[in-house]
Amino acid sequence: MAPYKEDEVNVNSVTKIGDTAKPHCTSNVHLNLHVSKVVVHPLVLLSVVDHFNRVSKTQNVKRVVGVLLGSLKPDRTLDIANSFAVPFDEDERDKKTWFLDMDYLESMYGMFHKVAARERIVGWYHTGPKLCQNDIVINEQLKRFTCNPVLVVIQAEPKDLGLPTEAYVEVQEVHDDGTPPIKTFEHVPSEIGAEEAEEVGVEHLLRDIKDQTAGTLSQRITDQLMGLRGLHGQLLDLQCYLHEVAQGKLPINHAVIYYIQEVLNLLPDVTSPQFVEAHNVQTNDQLMCVYMGSLVRTVIALHNLIDNKLSLQKSEKDKEKIEGTGKKDDNKEEKKENKELKDSKEGNKEKEKDITPHSCVMRCVVTELEDTNIVIGMRCMEFMKLFHGRLLQKEELFARKAVSIGAFIYALSKKKPMPRGQVGTPDLKNPDADKVRPEIKKACEKFMLSDDDLIKVSKIMEDEISRGLRNEPSCLKMLPSFVRAVPNGTERGDFLALDLGGTNFRVLLIKLKGDVAEMTGKVYRIPEETMKGAGTVLFDHIGECLADFLGEHDLKDSKGLPLGFTFSFPVQQEDLTTGKLISWTKGFNAKGVEGQDVVQFLRDACNRRKDISIDVVALLNDTVGTLMACAFKDNSCQIGVILGTGTNACYMEKLSNCPKFKKFGFDKDKYPKEMIINMEWGAFGDNGCINFLFTEFDRDVDKASINVGKHLFEKMISGMYLGELVRLVLVKLAKDKMLFDGDYEAISKPDCFPTKFVSDIEEQKGLGDFRRTLQILQQIGINKISDSDCLHVAYVCEVISTRAAYLTAAGISCILSRMQKPFVTVGVDGSVYRFHPKFGKILDAKINDLLPKNLDYQLMLSEDGSGRGAALVAAVADRIKKEHS
Predict the structure, then answer these.
(1) What this chain does, per the record (predicted)?
(2) Tens digits of per-residue pLDDT, 569-624?
């Protein structure tokens, strides 16, 4: 759910609004709203009705939920032109218990964004027919994608004539009696609007079919037919041009080809079976050529890298030999050279024996890497008959080693066959940065870290890691996870996952079939009285929900289903299946659990029911789950990092490097001699080892926190604090008369500038476009805002975001350097990494700068580490247990 701190939400006030709000009612609040009118296009209405009809046929639901896409016009008119459905479920008896599939929403929006980049998420819809109690809370979730989401209630089954839409925006009600403000909905006018093509379709559908002369459809179609004839003629001209280029009569002009491709992308699809089949055959041939060309280019790049490495080593050895024998007589030198020449010839013969026919044909076919992939592929096709059998023999090898090949191709996908370290850091800074005033830059210079600073941080972290693993005083706890391996693709069976970390918890079922995973789950709510009651009551409630889930999936008769338990609270683990709760957080205060084994509490709750049988085989935190979820896709994943509200990291460490864990007897068992170590790196620096990094603003953030002097590294890079750091800098600049004409009252309230504002501002393209920054500053309540103010606010956001990414890069490069593995995948999850538009790119580039050149890596976004990862830990534990039973 949303990772940032919000104001109080009064969901009960929504019912009152739903009863009192009238269509197109107006109020003086409208003058301050960011939207003056909402225009809904017919396509949206049709999509919503279709969504409702499809779902209502298979499920007993009263409303469906989806996302609205469109754009905000300069006159504050919100134009909603598109939409898509999102899986949604809620408890009819308790409206506060609901589930909205945010992962599905993110992936669908990503696909929509590729097709129509100008359309952005502007709000959401449901089919009502009225506002519901949980609408405010759902609206908060949509703020991940847009600052001020609009809610449109669309009646899929209207009972009366009239507009089927009612639009609302969120506002805050401030009371004079000093009580906290509450969030509620304000009605805004809405109407149905359409483009010309939509008007034609709607007119044709609604006109009286008995009057064939009504409407202008006939004339419009005639005009369009004439236009299509003209288009057909132009396409014939393009066809002639392309034929002449293909025959070599005209030179290739890449710019023209790109424009032609853009034009062809706008043409409608042709569904004739004969055309589709012929097109697919020709396209597949071309794609085969491109694929072969790309593969050949990659292999040749590898050959060049190896040859360059061998040549470099040979030249270094020759240089050492020459320097060591420079004083010997000429006869000995001559004998030595003859011997080296002989050895070199013998070495070349051995090398030639090792070269497979693949490399021979590749070197014969391709002499210049400057050729395009299609040209290289066509040349390879000419040799296809000769080496067809050899290629078929290698097909199985490629299939089996798909993961390794993917990692290998990624490592070589940097355009030129050069070492990773020579790839320059991309320019990710705001193009308006040169316009920033010198005094603003000077005020922010303490946040700017050099590579020397970051290397120093990496060395300090390495020292703290070593101390922690030796059980010496260290700010890094280096806790054992007792997870000894990652998925290898042989895991099979049904596995449960229980994810407990807040007021809502999840139960999931994952069916593993090698490298394929099918996952289903359900969200359950924990009542507040249960959270603060007796511990047995809390776990009995969890057991009841677990039984409900197993009953829905006909699994109550299954015996000993393996379960992974993600428990996102501080625990002290003694093995993989036990963990004593150190202290409750996040509003929980169940009595009698602290200091006790939470896994045993869960087992006892299930045993008391006597109608379910589970086997808790793993207890883990979300960081380990992130690593495991990525390792399922890529078994080279050895590091997991969380960059969200908080931050943490874990990695796979050799047990021989961990004297701290000798008491567990790992050296005597038969299991793998490595383990995922939970670093708890949010506490890095708590012992003062990185005090040289702290600014006055970092100290102010620490003083205002609930854990003063603790988790200092986390307070410099996590989503809970980045927005507050920006706010403190803006207040200081405003007090010094550098911003907002010295007016800082509106930003003087703590936490009024959440990290999501930083992400929104960083998404701007610069070059004078500060509309998003202006909207945010106006929303906060700042009145006097100039373009210069917007420029400098964006600059502060950039500087603090960059420092956070740089410090994260220093930590990851430290772990990579410590592991000393040629290639490692780093699994990353968390709201900062997911939603900050530049954080991931800056992080990747800086790791590339800091990491030794003989090591390589890739960053991978984790999918549902706390859920999927828990089940995968259970699957791996079950596999290892069976292998060594």
Answers:
(1) Catalyzes the phosphorylation of various hexoses to hexose 6-phosphate.
(2) 778 888 888 999 888 876 778 899 999 999 999 999 999 988 888 889 899 988 99
For residue 182, the cross-strand partners are 173
| The model's pTM | 0.56
Fold of the 433-448+689-819 domain: Hexokinase; domain 1 (3.40.367)
**Per-residue model confidence as pLDDT tens digits over 628-645:** 999 988 888 999 999 988
Most confident of 1-10, 318-327, 807-816: 807-816
Q: Which of 586, 654, 821, 853 is catalytic?
A: 586
- Of the CA atoms within 13 Å of residue 742, those in its CB half-sphere come to 2
As a three-state string, the secondary structure of 475-506 is CCCCEECCCCCCCCCCCEEEEEEEEECCCEEE
Tokens (6 digits) for 122:
């502007």
13-193: CATH, from 3.20.20.70, 3.40.50.720, 3.90.226.10, 3.40.140.10: 3.40.140.10
The upper half-sphere exposure of residue 698, i.e. CA atoms within 13 Å in the direction of its Cβ, equals 23
The residue with tokens 């012929």 is: 278
Q: Look-up: residue for tokens 């922690």?
A: 468
3-state secondary structure (DSSP) of residue 705: coil
Question: Cβ of 212: how many Cβ atoms within 10 Å?
Answer: 10
Pairing of strands 190-192, 37-40: parallel
CA pair distance 290, 277, nearest whole angstrom: 20
Closest CA to 620 of 865, 826, 861: 865
615 is catalytic: no
> pLDDT at residue 391 above 90?
no
Tell me the C-alpha distance between 730 and 697, whole Å.
Answer: 11
Burial class (CB in 10 A: 0-12, 13-18, 19+), 726: buried
Cβ-Cβ contacts under 8 Å for 876 (sequence gap 6 or more): 483, 485, 486, 487, 491, 628
Both tokens of residue 229? Answer: 């004839």
Which pair of tokens denotes residue 391? Answer: 């290629």
Residues 6+ apart with CB under 8 A from 601: 535, 536, 539, 593
Adjacent-strand bridge partners of 498: 507, 565
Residues 142-171 as b/e (b if ≥16 CB within 10 A, e otherwise) read bbbbbebbbbbbbbbeeeeeeebbbbbbbb
Q: Where exactly are the structural domains of the chain?
A: 13-193, 277-400, 433-448+689-819, 479-678+864-883
Q: Which residues contact 111 (CB under 8 A, 6 or more apart)?
A: none
Could you give the CA distance from residue 808 to residue 804 in angstroms, rounded to a whole number? 6
User: In angstroms, what is the C-alpha Rg of the chain?
Assistant: 32
Residue-wise over 396-419: b if at least 16 C-beta within 10 A, else e?
A: eeeeeeeeeeebbebbbeeeebee
Which one is catalytic: 432, 499, 597, 622? 622
586 as an active site residue: the answer is yes
Res. 411: pLDDT tops 50: no
Banded model confidence at residue 98, pLDDT cuts 50, 70, 90: confident
Tokens representing 246 are 């293909």
Mean predicted lDDT score pLDDT of the chain: 78
Residue 453's contacts (CB-CB under 8 Å, 6 or more residues apart) are 693
Residues 296, 366: Cα–Cα separation, whole Å:
8
Contact predicate 495/541, CB 8 Å: no
Alpha-carbon distances, residue 417 vs 2, 299, 315, 403, 494 (angstroms): 43, 10, 20, 21, 44
| CATH number for the segment(s) 479-678+864-883 | 3.30.420.40
For residue range 102-155, list pLDDT tens digits in order.
888 888 888 887 777 778 899 999 988 888 888 888 998 888 888 889 999 998
Amino acid at 111: M
The vertex-300 CA angle with 294 and 302, nearest 5°, equals 105
